[in-house]
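chain below, 149 aa
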Amino acid sequence: MAALAKNTFHLVSPRAGTRSFVIKNAVQIYGGTLVGIDANGFLDNWLDTAGLKFVGLAQHDALGDTSASPAVECRVSTQGETLENVAIAGTFVQADVNSLIYSTSNNPADSTKTAGTNVEAIGWASRFRSAGFGDITLFTPEEHLALNA
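prediction:
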């Protein structure tokens, strides 16, 4: 390779925002669900499954079909937004602000302060609202990987 000698414009995309991922075959994704990338590189519902890495919130519903051409994809918000006034299991109180938050399902209302068996934190408690309810600031995929490497 040689040094550039003229303007060269590359195809780029922002690190955070919205990205599209190929969905695992026969997996139903619904808008607003937590999703991750499995060990084979496919988008899947967030569950307590070994090898799953958190990426964000699905933006619409889609049914995975990897035999389709092109394979079915789903747009995912990867910007680490804050979910407001979400139920957080485990006696969530004011002193729990800044705690790591986990979920073992694709439903944000199943969030808890207790780690699952196979998956790591999806975000952190950023605000106390009332007993058992607070705001959860989700991790971006990069933050999830850095914290849970």
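The chain is about 5% helix and 35% strand. The chain has a mean pLDDT of 94.
thats it, cya
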